[in-house]
Amino acid sequence: MIPPGSRMPAAVQTAWFLRDPAGTFDRLHSRHGPIFTVRYFGFPPEVYVTTAELAEQVFRTDRGGGLAGAARRDFLKPMVGSHSVLTLDGDAWSHHRKALTPPLRARQVAGYHDEIADIAAEKIATWPLGVPFALRDRIQEITLEVIIRLIFGIRDAERLGRLHVLLPRLITLGGSASVVMLPSHLRGRAAKAPFTPYARFLKARATVDAILYEEIAHRRRTEADGADMLSGLLAAGFTDEEIRDELITLLIAGHETTATSLAWAFERLLRLPHILERLPDDEEYLDAVVKEVMRLRPAVYEAPRLLDAPLRLGDYEVPAGWYAGPFIPLVHLDPDAFPEPEKFSPERFLDGRQSRAWMPFGGGRRFCVGAQLALLEMRVVIREVLHRLDLTAPDPAPEPRRLTNVTLTPARLTRVTARARSLDRTR
Ligand code: HEM
Questions:
Q1: Can you give 131-183 as a three-state secondary structure string?
Q2: For residue 393, which of 221, 307, 329, 385 sits 20 to 30 Å off, Cα-Cα?
Q3: Beta-bridge partners for 312
């Protein structure tokens, strides 16, 4: 038996989802229970699950039967190429994952602490005072810089300068619906017509690639055994093209997700003064706050697998060729895993408490390789901001969730007004 779902045509279901993703899933969940099917126009059907136990069954398919790479390949390939840990499966994935993991382990990223704090301080000093602005965009400048300087490891001022101009342009063009949703069989034609968004995207990509290839050539000549990502990939014998693809992968997977999660942290904290009051210097409490923000406002809403074998889930069977994955915001509201699930309560994560239902970074073998870096960045940026600025929300109403690419973003991008903190409250 196939999991239940709406009988409306796929085009209607897609339109509902795009307009109000959270509301649509709430309705499906209350109507059909913890497993339901959604049909998106132009794609195989997707079965969503909303409990930790069912999510684990889906993640178990990483050992065989489920392909996380294939589930993402079509829409990510124009940006990340053919050699990306995000879009590979099987042995090729495992080879890439092994090379990417060591520089992103907790102990290794702890060494980035001071540099992240410096980058944050540098950028925060440029934020406007006394007038409302969109915090998400400003924070994204910090998370982008962390990737360029710490993960790419680029120190050359001229290359850095060019990337600062070109990367935001590449990301905007590459993330636009007209590029992401362009069917692969139309890409060749769109590339030849000079003024299509796809052709402009390709031009921006070629310019960024040229800079990355310059850096790779430079690093091949000068050093091979540093501890950063690029050195690790060189040491693992990766080709220039493979290194390029993985650097862009880390950029795409790592900077917008972290910026959005941070934007949600401030969106929530400005509306929860009793929590904000206890921040930022109690390190353990800050860590628990970050986790609770990611529970109630996960930036990534799903972690799908494309099934190459049928998957049994309870009384249902999901056919091969369909997608299956957790709908993360609803797993995080499962009252069995999180009592009083709607309540913002960092205490759930104090004293080393964890829950297998907490999955903002996905799970199984494809669990986010950058999770430790993201968590560190979030703690450091929150601390640096709160030490320097008093933030207020010009509109106290909570910001609804809006869908942008693969993330759920605060609809007003966390609109805030900043004022310098009075001296007695700084460090
Ligand atoms: C708060 C920030 C972040 C969130 C919410 C997030 C979330 C996720 C999720 C949900 C997945 C899919 C896991 C699955 O399919 O089970 C993922 C995969 C991935 N993430 Fe993150 N991520 C974040 C930050 C980062 C950072 C900072 C990096 C790297 C610098 C990164 C690199 C990756 C990569 C390479 C993958 C693919 C792993 C694989 O397929 O083996 N992410 N992330």
A1: CCEEHHHHHHHHHHHHHHHHHCCCCCHHHHHHHHHHHHHHHHHHHCHHHHCCC
A2: 329
A3: 317
> What atom in ligand 1 is closest to the CA of residue 299?
5
Q: What does the radius of gyration of the chain's CA atoms come to, in whole angstroms?
A: 22
Pocket lining: 363 vs ligand 1, CB cutoff 6 Å: yes
Q: What are the C-alpha distances in Å from 426 to residues 383, 387, 421?
A: 11, 6, 7
- Average pLDDT on 169-181 reads 83
Q: Of the residues 361, 373, 404, which should be mutated to test ligand 1's pocket, given the most ligand atoms within 8 Å of the CB?
A: 361
**What does the block give as tokens for 335?**
């009252």
Q: Ligand 1: which of 257, 291, 293, 367 to mutate, judged by most atoms within 8 Å of the beta carbon?
A: 257
Calculate the dihedral angle through the C-alpha atoms of 385, 390, 391, 394, rounding to the nearest 10 degrees.
Answer: -170
Instruction: Answer yes or no: is the C-beta of 258 below 6 A from any ligand 1 atom.
Output: yes
- Measured in angstroms, how far is the CA atom of residue 253 from the centroid of ligand 1? 6
Angle at which helix 240-269 crosses helix 371-388, to 10 degrees, equals: 40
CA proximity to 375, closest of 143, 70, 181:
143
The model's pTM is 0.96
Closest residue by CA, ligand 1 atom 43: 368
- Residues 115-165 have pLDDT tens digits of 999 999 999 999 999 999 999 999 999 999 999 999 988 888 999 999 999
List domains and CATH numbers for the chain: 10-153+228-425 (1.10.630.10)
Contacts (Cβ under 8 Å, ≥6 apart) of 105? 372
pLDDT value of residue 21: 86
Ligand 1: distance of its center to the CA of 142 in Å?
Answer: 18
For 389-419, what is each residue's pLDDT tens digit?
999 999 999 999 998 877 899 999 999 999 9
**How many CA atoms does the CB half-sphere of 33 hold within 13 Å?**
8
Quote the ligand 1 centre to 31 CA distance (angstroms). Answer: 31
Rounded to whole angstroms, the Cα distance separating 357 from 337 reads 6
Contact 66 CB / ligand 1 (< 6 Å): no
Q: Are 256 and 370 in contact (CB under 8 A)?
A: no
Summary mean pLDDT of the chain? 93
Show the CA angle centred on residue 168, arms to residues 158 and 105, nearest 5°.
85
Question: What's the pLDDT band for 346 if we cut at 50, 70, 90?
Answer: very high
